[in-house]
Design goal:
By secondary structure, this protein is of the alpha/beta class. It has five helices and four strands, in the order αβαβααββα.
């Protein structure tokens, strides 16, 4: 995709508002990482003008080492959680590596972590 085809904040706002209208009561999420911070200039989430704050899913890799997610997570810097990655918002979900090891995927898969409770996860996934 060429640079002039990259989404703008207005494109993201319109897309999320459409989802919000079509899926009332559902918690929306934003996954972007480097693109949001770098290419979009790290705009404040409030500029999306959503009814509720979205789940922030930050892709921020730190290692090329292949291992189990629990082992890789031990080396995730605290700053990855404290970094206001999305216009002042901290991540709810952190995708910290793309080299998670599973027997079925020996070359590695994306590995994510969250600091919320199981009840929070259930609420995020609940039907309206």
């Amino acid at each position: 995709m060429s640079r002039d085809q990259h989404p703008t904040l207005d494109h993201v706002r319109r897309f999320l508002h459409t989802l919000q209208d079509e899926l009332p009561g559902k918690k929306l999420g934003i996954y972007s990482g480097y693109y949001w911070r770098g290419d979009m200039g790290n705009p404040d989430i409030s500029r999306l003008e959503l009814q509720r704050n979205p789940i922030i899913w930050d892709a921020h890799y730190f290692s090329t080492h292949v291992d189990y997610g629990s082992v890789l997570y031990e080396r995730v810097p605290d700053s990855y959680w404290e970094n206001a990655a999305y216009g002042g918002e901290r991540p709810d979900i952190l995708q910290f590596a793309d080299k998670g090891r599973l027997r079925q995927f020996p070359k590695g898969i994306d590995v994510n972590a969250t600091r919320v409770t199981m009840e929070d996860l259930k609420r995020w996934a609940a039907a309206p």
